[in-house]
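thought: fold this chain, then report.
action: predict
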Amino acid sequence: MTSRFTDRTVLVTGGGTGLGRAIARAFAAEGARVAVAGRSAATLDETVALIAAAGGTARAFTADVTVAADMHRLVRDTVAAFGGLDVAVNNAGVFRGGGHSAADLPLDDWHTLLDVNVTGVLHALQAEIAHMRGHGGGAIVNIASNLGPHVRIPGVFGYQVSKAAVSALTRAAARDHVGDGIRINAVSPGASESSMSLRPGETEAEREVRMKAESPLGRISSAEEIAAAVLYLASDAAGSAVGTDLVIDGGVSA
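observation:
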């Protein structure tokens, strides 16, 4: 374990699975006290157990990003448990509407994408900023995507719009709150070690073959590579990174 985040408290939404779990584990491995949040207590407990087994410190908190009151409660509970909040990673997100164009995207999918991926990030930001600007500042990293802000493909209309909004939201909020001592940035992963990068019915082995053709790098990004980008933006080494949208996609959007 290293000490880059020793004595710092980190909150990760969507921390029960996939990239969120990898991000939470990476922070804990570098000394952070990690609050892992999400809607499923069972998966959150698994993340906490993995962190504890590796010698780290973490607690699980159930919360729904689409409910503003949940986000304010989550921040209060994190501060009560660990004494503060230094870093927040707004990772919770969903994918809906694969195969649908703008003309035929079901409106239920549209509303879900906006509620979770956009309004959910806003709810989290508002709760996190409310605490941080009164307690010496902090760092916030939002998880966007290369799809939407950096590259577009047919059939993923709703998801791309929602993630483009996260990128724009990040930059606008960063300008608004850098004077409060809060650095806000984003990481935009491409296809990575996450279930979201699997097409319907596709196996991981089939995805590996597909990515050899689709990615200049010839593979997906590992969850650890995405986590490393998040930790960099949250660290003191990125002290002048404000409103950055760091793309980690193997060159797809280059």
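thought: worth noting. Residues 9-248 form a domain with the Rossmann fold fold (CATH 3.40.50.720).
final: tokens above.
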